[in-house]
Task: structure prediction
Amino acid sequence: MEIDNQTWVREFILLGLSSDWCTQVSLFSLFLVTYLMTVLGNCLIVLLIRLDSRLHTPMYFFLTNLSLVDVSYATSIVPQLLAHFLEEHKAIPLQSCAAQLFFSLALGGIKFVLLAVLAYDRYVAVCDPLRYSAIMHGALCARFAITSWVSDSINSLVQTAITFQLPMCTSKFIDHISCELLAVVRLACVDTSSNEAAIMVSSIVLLMTPFCLVLLSYIQIISTILKIQSREGRKKAFHTCTSHLTVVSLCYGTTIFTYIQPHSGPSVLQEKLISVFYAIVMPLLNPMIYSLRNKEMKGAWHKLLEKFSGITSKLAT
Result:
């Protein structure tokens, strides 16, 4: 069959995690509960930050953005994954596949940039606390947020456009849980070296550059903390960074370990597992990390519960 007769693919088939029906039903139940908890947890964080004026600070402004990114990223992948667990024909239309690739790629990149911005915020808070309010003013925070959303959206749009211009004539079966960039590129029946080079460049710029900025920030933070004389002062300074450092370690550590390997790239199974981790596990862990390890968030949560209890008591009487 000629290539011209094979380039126009109307839909793709996602092979997913398993073809066993019992396994799919079990995964459906597990992922559904996890997704609902993810949406609830991140929406609660946004609500708490919105309602408590003590949390109207640059750090919590960026945490709001991070929670919105987590919910959006999970929503771009998990509902379709849940639907496919219960369907025999696991098809996704070409347009839906392109949209999913765009949103997941953009939101994933935005998250890495936001983590780098949060590292800078913690650097200023620890290393230059007296000038914190002057440096991390509202206009700068807004510029940081807008830059992260716009730059990664543009990169995702470019990557999606050049990927779906490729003639997809090798197969319409995507061995993945979603329309992931590398999984779609593998279906092309032409030389994809230019696409792979573009992916490599964007990965270096949008992953390694934020990672290096995070690393430099924490080198300065740790150096400053070690100079603090009192043990209690060092503990308090380090505590302001622990939640962010935990999330950074999970996000960057997993990605670098999986995709930056000296001899070979990630296997298909590794790509699936890392996608599950970022779409399902990380968005659920983030609100837990930031709420359970943060006194201000716990205080805001208790204040909201007390307010809700007071309203309930008044209605009851």
